[in-house]
Structure formats: C-alpha cells, structure tokens
Amino acid sequence: MYGPPVVLYVGPDAAAVADAWGESGDGLVVRGAAPETDVAERLAEGGVDAVVCDCDGSFDGRATIEAVRDHSASLPVVVLSVGDALSLAAATDLGVESYLQVDADTDRVERLADLRPLIERRREARRESTMLASLLENVPLSVYFKDRQSRHVRVSDEMPRLSGPSYLESPDGKRHHAPEDVVGKTDFDLYPSELSEGAVADDRRVIETGESVDDRLEHAYGDDLEESYVTTSKAPWRDEHGAVLGVVGVTRDITDRKRYENQLERQNERLERFASVVSHDLRNPLEVALGRLEFARAEGDDEHFDAIERSLHRIDDLIEDVLTLAREGETVSDPRPVALADVARAAWRVVETGDATLSVETDATLLADESRLQQLLENVVSNAVAHGGDGVTVTVGDLGERQGFFVADDGPGVPEADRETVFDPGYSTDDEGTGLGLSIVRTIAEAHGWESEVTDSESGGARFEFGDVSGDGLADSRADEGTTDERAGAGDD
After folding, report:
1. Which of 315, 431, 459, 469 is the most exposed place for a label (fewest CB within 10 A)?
2. Which residues contact 457 (CB under 8 A, 6 or more apart)?
3. How far, in Å, CA of 437 to CA of 423, rounded?
4. Is this structure's pTM higher than 0.70?
5. How far apart are CA 202 and CA 1, in angstroms?
6. What residues contact 123, with CB distance under 8 A and at least 6 apart?
C-alpha cells in the first residue's frame, strides 16, 4: 500500500552512509543531511518518516534534534550516540524514540538494517495517529474516548459544539470551547446530574459486559434545545490484547431528521382525517341527497328538494373545512413576530358574535404565521359562541405557568369525558357543524409546534390552552391592568 519508509540520516558522514545503504540496503530509503545546515531544508521537502541522528561529538546533536522538533513534535527520532556525545537524559527530554550507544567504528549500514522494523512500526503507528487526528478534527460528529472512570481522554473538535452554541456550558456556568477543555472531565462535570447518571450507567454497562449501545435517542442538552435531538452509540475501547480500557462513543445531531419524521407523522395523521371525512362525513349527506332525489323524481315534493339543498350545502362546508385542514397542516417554516391581542381582535371581527364579549388580557408577541393564528382564534371563538350563546364572554390571555396562551369562555364547558376526543375530526354536538373546526385548531397548533389541550375555565366554561409557544411577554399577565373588553363591532373603524 505504501512505499518503503524514508529515513533522514544526519551525521558527519551522512552522504557516504546514504550511498552505502543505496548499494546494499533494502526496505528503507535513506537520505543524507549535513548536521545543523541541511536538516530543516530536507525536512521541509516532506515525505520523511523518521530521523536517525548519529551524534559523534563533532556537532551539536541537541540543536539538531530541536530543529526536528520545530518541524514536527511526533516525527520519530533515533539517536546513535558515540559515548556520551548526547546524554540519555537529553535525548529523553527531546522525545527521542530510541537511544543507542555505538562505537565510532560501528557499521552504520548494519545498524540501520537493525532499526528497520522499529521505523516501520513507528511509521504505521504515526499514520494511524494522524488518521485519528484528522477524523477528530474534521468529522461533524461528537466522538469521544473515556477511560474506565468515565473521564474523557480524547474528544473530537465538534464535541463541545455539536448542538446549539459554539461551546458546551456545564451546570456551574463554565464554558468549554475546545477539546482540551473537556479532557479529564466526566459527564458530571459537564452535564446536569439527571443526564450524567444515565450516560455513566451506559458506560459501566459497556465496560462490564463488552456490549455496545446503539443509536440511543436523546434530547440535546443546552439552552433553547428542547426540540433538538441526538443519537448516541457506544462501544468498548480495547487495547491490542482485547482488554477493555474504557468506552468510545459517537453522538450525532438528528434534529433535522426528527423534524422530518414528525412532519411525516403529522401528514399521515391528516391523511387519516381526510379519509375519515371522505368515507363517512361526506358519504352521509351524499346518500341523503341521492335518496331524496329518488323521492323527488317519484313525488315531485318541494320538501325533498329542500333536503337535497341542505345536503349539498353540508357537503360544500365539509369540502371547505377539509381544504382548510390540508392547508393549515403544513409546518410553519418562517414564523414572524405577531401581537396576540391584535390578531385576537381581528379574529373577533370576522366571526358572527352577536352580543358576546371579548376580553383581551395579554400584551404578548408570538412567533407565528399570522394568518393561521387568526384562523385558529376564529375557530375557537366560533366554538365558544356556538355553545355558549350570544351572551358568552371570551377571554384571551397568557398561561403564566408556562410559555403559551389560552382562549377561555364562561359557557357550559366541555365534559371531562369528551376532552380527549374534542379535537378529533367529526366531533360535534351541533347537527349543523362539520365537526372539523377544533380539528383545524389542533392542526394549526401542531404546525407551529405548539401543544393544545382543553380544560375548565375559572367560570366553569371551556378553556383552550396552547403551550410551548415562542415569543416575548408570555409571563403571568392576568392582572387587571391592560385588560380590554370588546363587544361585537365596538370600536371598529
């Protein structure tokens, strides 16, 4: 796969030794370099796998090796020292690979032949080390090695910045920007205890059983990463004898994939809703219309034509709601800041509310698609007026206990037994309704990534809550200040 190792031989007779090796040696390529003058230049040419420094006392061996170290901290260096021309202590201090004392008349070609296996092994080890270093520096994954005490021994450059910001912030507020900031630390030094306990338990299981952990799905850790996901795989880190030294792990950010999966899941749910509407809700009025048409042909009674007209109007309403369901279900990809109070009032003006009253108790600005948010509010308000009567009061405000908002009324409310199904397609207590209004509400919420649920309002009516909403001012703002009342049409220009 590779050519023979290239050795830079440095010594007073370097050219002669290189020529002699060329005539009789094998398995190495030997280049000669004069001490203190040619070393840096020859190293700069590249392709050198090891340096043999023949120190006979005629030149400064230490300065020569320092020049090698200026070029590369990891390039293997072998010292042949005549007597104590270069001391073992000095050689060790300079990171010399091998130190051999020789006589002045030792055959240098034979000595190089003896060094060949060592040089070949060191070249292979160095190549593997540079491969690993290149991988850890460039791969867009969090790769890490931990010892048996779960201390990080080596990590990739991406590890501190895999998700979110360009640093990893520990619970005590310390920020880790580079791999060296992480080395020597355990998960308990870097992450919250509830996350660290599970990670270290996985480490122990891998070390003790020798079995891998494959693609474990986890939420990413860090500020504003609640909707970020990673997968982690771990395997035993073994030495050349098979003994387990620790764990090697790989963590990758799969947020985009997870979002795509969630989007597909929502689309499949919408398809199921459409199928239900087409197969059941549309079929019923169609069968009524066809049946009445038969009677009308036989009897000519206007009553049948009226029934047919009602069925066709219902089919038209259902088709409109199904189309709305399809449009509003697409994921909101570019939300903009929207004043919740303004959209609530705009929705109120569109709905036929009679003598109902709107109470706005929020100054919040949401990140949302304004058109779809208004559609959501229109449907909830329509539901409140339909079930609470013309005198119902509808309140829009902040949740307070978590990021989000609510729409509540003082009508009869939703029975507890129906709260799990109230958002289902076809759910309706009104014979005139399509049963898709609240399904559209949940679909719009899901398209924004919001949670939706129904509970009791303070007056016992229905309270629709929307959580996990991004925006400003979503604190507990149910105080009286800033509250306004609107009756249908009041204050409109």
Report:
1. 431
2. 395, 408, 409, 410, 413, 463
3. 8
4. no
5. 39
6. 2, 5, 49, 50, 76
Q: Which CATH number fits domain 333-493: 3.40.50.11540, 1.10.1040.10, 3.40.630.20, 3.30.565.10?
A: 3.30.565.10
| pLDDT tens, residue order, the chain (493 aa) | 578 999 999 998 999 999 999 988 788 999 999 987 789 999 999 899 999 999 999 999 999 999 999 999 989 999 999 999 999 999 999 999 999 999 999 999 999 999 999 999 999 888 888 889 898 999 889 999 999 999 999 999 998 887 667 888 888 889 999 999 999 999 999 988 888 898 999 999 999 999 999 988 876 655 444 567 888 999 999 998 999 999 999 998 888 888 778 777 877 776 676 666 555 556 656 776 777 777 777 776 777 777 777 667 767 766 666 666 555 567 777 889 999 999 999 999 988 888 999 999 999 999 998 988 998 998 899 899 988 877 899 999 999 777 899 999 999 888 888 888 888 765 565 555 556 778 888 888 988 889 999 999 999 999 999 998 987 766 443 333 333 444 333 333 3
Q: CATH fold of 256-328, please?
A: Helix Hairpins (1.10.287)
Instruction: Report whether 54 contacts 30 (CB < 8 A).
Output: no
**Which fold does the domain 139-253 belong to in CATH?**
Beta-Lactamase (3.30.450)
CA-nearest of 124, 176, 126, 169 to 155 is 176
- For residue 351, give both structure tokens: 């709905």
Helix (H, G, I), strand (E, B) or coil at 112: helix
Residue spans per domain, the chain: 6-135, 139-253, 256-328, 333-493
